[in-house]
Each structure stands twice: as structure tokens, then as C-alpha cells.
Amino acid sequence: MKRSSTINRVTNETEISLSIDIDGEGSGKISSGIPFFDHMLTLFAAHGFFDLNISAIGDIDVDFHHTVEDTGIVLGTGLKNALGDRKGIKRFGHAVVPMDDALAHVTIDLSNRPYLVYNIPEIPYQGDKFDPSLAKEFFRAFAVTAGMNLHINVLYGENNHHIMESIFKASGKALDQATSFDHRVKNVLSTKGAL
User: Fold this and answer.
1) What is the pLDDT of residues 123-163, one digit of tens each?
2) Is residue 13 within 8 Å of residue 66, measured between CB atoms?
3) What sign has the CA pseudo-torsion 50, 172, 54, 84?
4) pTM here?
5) Is the dihedral of CA 19, 24, 25, 26 positive or negative?
6) Which of 41, 61, 142, 177 gives 30 a disulfide partner, CB atoms 3.0 to 4.6 angstroms apart?
7) What is the pLDDT of the chain when averaged over all its residues?
8) At what angle do helices 160-179 and 133-146 cross, to 10 degrees?
9) What are φ and ψ of residue 84, in 5° steps?
10) Considering the chain, what percentage of its residues have pLDDT values greater than 90?
């Protein structure tokens, strides 16, 4: 069973094309016009073993917000489509990833009930090229459109780059676990019989 999806989304603010193969090898080809964001999504793909291609053109001359948020929408839609009926998957995933001074815990439930919990240390924005607050917008959009509970908790960290890197790596690893098959799950992992 091929678990892949291709999405094209065009608005007045962004034009995004995406393909995702859940059962890939971790190949990421990302082009959003935002190098740091590309780096984070490449880490997400590599550590989740997803083949992920994203081409995003957005109004980054205004700011990065629309491009980052809309990429989350498209990624979530692609994941949801690729998962299909979610039969046989483990559904839950959890990963703890360190990155030097930072430690991220990411927990996922592919329940079809969207919810985001996002707790990270308050580090002042230093005027870097990527405002860390945009990551929350990305993950909110991703969780809502994918239909998943997504809990991101960074216990500590002093460097915004390290915090972001630990989150994206942990998210990939947790999602890889949640999307993996378990031969004991005959339908969906729910006493209700549906997700």
C-alpha cells in the first residue's frame, strides 16, 4: 500500500506544491525562500524517514508568516491524505531529542482530533532571520489539518537555533513512530472502532 500524497495550494499570499511519502528514506528537497525553515523541514524529513518535497513561493517581502503557516497547512493536508483510513498504525508516537543545551519532548496522537500544546523556553528574539514564534504557527496549522494531537514541550534551552532543531527532529521521530504499522492492530487502534 503506497502511503503518499501530492498537494498544490494557491492563494493570494502563497503558492505551495508538496509531495510526501510516509514510507520513504528521509529525502528532503525543500525550497521556501526561507533558508532556516528549509533546514528545519529537511531535519524533520530525515529523522522521520519521510520523502518530502516542498516548493513554496510566498510574500516573504512582507514577512515569513504566510509562507510558514501555509506550509504547515499543506503538510498537514498531505499527511492526512497519505494516511488514508489510518488502519493498522500505532497511532501514538513519542520522541525525546537533545540538541546541545536544548531538550525537546514531542508526543503525537493521530486521533483525527486536532490539538496543539506548545511549551518552549522564553528566549528573547534576537532579530535572527527566523523568528522562533513562527514555529508555533507552523505546528498549529500542521496539527489542525493533519488531525492530530501534538504536544511539544522543550524542558530547557538557551539557544533558539538549538531549541528549534531539537523540536523538528523530535517531531519527525515521533511522527515516524505514530505512522508505523503494528501487525496486532487489525483495524484502527480505538475502542470506538474509528478515528
Assistant:
1) 877 766 789 899 999 999 999 999 999 999 999 999 999 99
2) yes
3) positive
4) 0.96
5) positive
6) 41
7) 96
8) 10
9) 60, -130
10) 91
Domains of the chain with bracketed CATH: 4-179 (3.30.230.40)
| CA pair distance 111, 177, nearest whole angstrom | 14
In which element (H, E) is residue 47 found? Answer: helix 35-48
Indicate the SS3 state at residue 117: strand
Dihedral (CA of 141, 9, 163, 60) sign:
negative
Cell 523541514 belongs to residue? 41
Beta carbons within 8 Å of 122's beta carbon, 6+ residues apart: none
Distance CA 180, CA 90 (A): 6
One-letter amino acid at 36 equals: F
Question: For residue 128, what pLDDT is reported?
Answer: 66
Angle at 65 between CA 64 and CA 66, to 5 degrees: 100
User: What is the 3-class SS of 127-193, one letter each residue?
Assistant: CCCCCCHHHHHHHHHHHHHHCCEEEEEEEECCCHHHHHHHHHHHHHHHHHHHHCECCCCCCCCCCCC
What residues of the chain score a pLDDT lower than 50? none
Q: Is-contact 89 182, C-beta < 8 A?
A: yes
What is 86-105 written as a DSSP string?
-TTB--EEEEEEEETTEEEE
